[in-house]
Specification:
This protein is an alpha/beta fold. 37% of the residues lie in helices and 18% in strands. The relative contact order is 0.18.
Length: 245
């Protein structure tokens, strides 16, 4: 999930209002993928050779559903999380639920969300109401005003900052992890995520999303139109820096 280490991330200190996050615990053979990912990054960082297989504790596999962990290492530039985001959005038939602390989209992901909504898919995105980075937030809002006319429903989490990073499609398949929907995360950062299709877990994730929606306010076309021209010009200038954000 997206949970950081610090008092403000457990709401002991409320720097950005209520900090709302989500994580998932996995057990069994799927854990090995994360272990191997950590060790690969450890070896790259320390320059010390390790036999990764020495740390592999094998588990029997139960059930008919899949949990597939994946992540980035410095020598891998495959952009896996971005590809999976795109696949999930393009493959959705009924609904897409997304929670995203930042919404700075490349052209392909933006077009996929617009096309999904215009095609009748119920696309819902929750973003923070209180920003942790003001300028980044302004850029995110520029993408919000671009998506809404196509039928994408976007909500602000009223109590504060939503930091969970998840996507649920048709309540049948999902991804959760550390990847934000922005350029830095999808193109430059080293992230880790989990793809899954277990209906029981996805039911819990959908419940989390819908409960969060109860504390969120939908952004309307009217609210966007009320933004003054100076604010919009400043947004347009900031947006030119999107690939760096």
């Amino acid at each position: 999930g997206g949970i950081n280490i610090g008092d403000e991330y457990t709401n002991k200190k409320k720097v950005f209002g209520y900090w709302h996050d989500a994580g998932i615990m996995i057990e069994g053979e799927a854990v090995w993928s994360f272990t191997a990912l950590f060790l690969e990054n450890w070896i790259y960082s320390t320059k010390k050779e390790e036999k990764i297989e020495n740390y592999h504790i094998k588990h029997s596999v139960h059930g008919n559903y899949q949990y597939i962990p994946f992540g980035d290492i410095p020598v891998d530039k495959s952009l896996t999380a971005r590809s999976i985001y795109l696949h999930l959005i393009n493959d959705a038939k009924k609904s897409i639920y997304i929670t995203a602390p930042y919404l700075i989209l490349d052209t392909e992901i933006s077009s996929a969300l617009k096309l999904a909504a215009a095609s009748g898919v119920d696309v819902n995105i929750i973003i923070p109401a209180i920003p942790d980075k003001r300028l980044v937030y302004m850029v995110s809002e520029s993408y919000v005003q671009e998506l809404i006319p196509y039928g994408v429903k976007i909500y602000k989490f009223s109590p504060g900052f939503i930091h969970s990073k998840m996507i649920i499609c048709d309540e049948k398949v999902a991804m959760i992890g550390t990847s934000n929907l922005d350029f830095r995360s999808l193109y430059m950062h080293l992230e880790n995520n989990l793809w899954l299709n277990d209906p029981n877990t996805i039911k819990d994730m959908s419940k989390y999303f819908k409960e969060t929606l109860n504390y969120s306010k939908q952004i309307t076309k009217e609210a966007i139109k009320k933004r003054n021209i100076i604010y919009r010009v400043f947004q347009a200038v900031l947006r030119t820096f999107s690939p760096l954000l």
